[in-house]
């Protein structure tokens, strides 16, 4: 498990990952963005972040609401554009995290393997470039999802091209690279910071925390202790003051008939009387 596994810095995926970081740093320090590039950067951050939070996390990993087959594919595409591999890869590893949270087998446990490994190292480890198909049997029955997972570089590559065609090199650097790097580290922060800093409402048997700042940066994913307590519901900010934009978007999508059967926290969950349930 992780302690015996080394991160790889020379695989094609890792080289691409570092190249995007270098390009983003160059952009921040050397390229003055125009309005188009800034709009691309902000809007592509929000759209793709929802692809990760509403799509990869709350839909594919936890099946916390239902939708049509075509919108399921849209969610896989939106999340795919964030360049965090495919929905099946993401969901399989995330389900493993919930099942083994903070145990030696937890691939990205801060407690077991330290901050760097939890935040980033495990993603660059060749041992985790594949996933356990048995964990996502409910998803592999859709050939289009298997295809887009296998060729997960297609959505981000097409998006990068589109950014270049719309905004030139500034569009590519700010619209794609800067935005992608912010997406990476805000997503990774849930695995690292949200198991380190913040408050705990529920005793969950692992180290998850609730963080207002991370909830703002991640469209509501910062309520991670709530989420570990009851991972099955689509709502992670359990109370009105716990801002959860992903949940609000899902409610809007329900209003227009695109998603349905959004799972809510029960009163027993809100009262802390529900036993913690891991999703295997
Ligand atoms: Zn966690
Ligand atoms: Zn989760």
Quick take:
The chain is mainly alpha-helical and 280 residues long.
Distance between the termini: 18 Å
| Radius of gyration based on Cα positions | 18 Å
Structural class: mainly alpha
Identify low-pLDDT runs. none
What value does the average pLDDT take?
94
Order of helices and strands: HHEHHHHHHHHHHEH
Say which molecules are bound, naming each kind only once. zinc ion
- Total number of helical segments? 13
Strand content: under 5%
The main sheet orders its strands as 1-2
Shape: globular
Q: Main sheet?
A: 2 strands, antiparallel
Helix content: 55-70%
Q: Compute the number of structural domains.
A: 1
By DSSP, the count of extended strands is 2
Please provide a written account of the structure.
- It contains 13 helices and two strands.
- The two termini are 18 Å apart.
- The chain is mainly α and 280 residues long.
- It has one domain (41-165, 178-270).
- The protein has helices spanning 12-30, 35-61, 69-80, 87-99, 110-113, 115-119, 137-140, 143-150, 154-191, 212-217, 224-229, 245-255, 267-270; strands at 66-67, 259-260.
- Strands 1-2 form a two-stranded antiparallel ribbon.
- The radius of gyration is 18 Å and the shape is globular.
- The mean pLDDT is 94.
- Residues 97, 101, 195, 208, 224, 228 line the site of one zinc ion (ZN).
């Amino acid at each position: 498990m992780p302690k015996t596994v080394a991160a790889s810095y020379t695989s094609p995926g890792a080289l691409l990952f570092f190249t995007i970081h270098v390009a983003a740093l160059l952009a921040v320090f050397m390229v003055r963005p125009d309005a188009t590039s800034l709009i691309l950067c902000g809007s592509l951050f929000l759209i793709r972040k929802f692809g990760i939070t509403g799509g990869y996390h709350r839909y594919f990993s936890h099946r916390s609401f239902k939708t049509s087959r075509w919108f399921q594919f849209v969610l896989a595409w939106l999340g795919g554009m964030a360049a965090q591999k495919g929905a099946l890869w993401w969901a399989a590893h995330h389900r493993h995290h919930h099942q083994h949270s903070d145990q030696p087998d937890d691939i990205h446990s801060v407690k077991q393997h330290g901050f760097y490994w939890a935040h980033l190292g495990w993603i660059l480890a060749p041992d985790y470039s594949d996933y356990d198909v048995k964990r996502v049997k409910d998803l592999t029955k859709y050939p289009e999802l298997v295809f887009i997972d296998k060729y997960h570089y297609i959505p981000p590559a097409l998006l990068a091209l589109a950014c270049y065609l719309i905004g030139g090199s500034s569009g590519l650097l700010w619209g794609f690279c800067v935005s992608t790097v912010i997406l990476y580290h805000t997503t990774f922060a849930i695995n690292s910071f949200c198991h380190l800093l913040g408050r705990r409402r529920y005793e969950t048997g692992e180290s998850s925390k609730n963080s207002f700042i991370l909830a703002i940066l991640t469209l509501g994913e910062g309520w991670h202790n709530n989420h570990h307590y009851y991972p099955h519901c689509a709502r992670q900010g359990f109370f009105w003051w716990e801002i959860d934009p992903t949940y609000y978007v899902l409610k809007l999508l329900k209003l227009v008939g695109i998603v349905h059967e959004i799972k809510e926290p029960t009163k027993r969950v809100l009262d802390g009387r529900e036993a913690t349930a891991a999703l295997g």
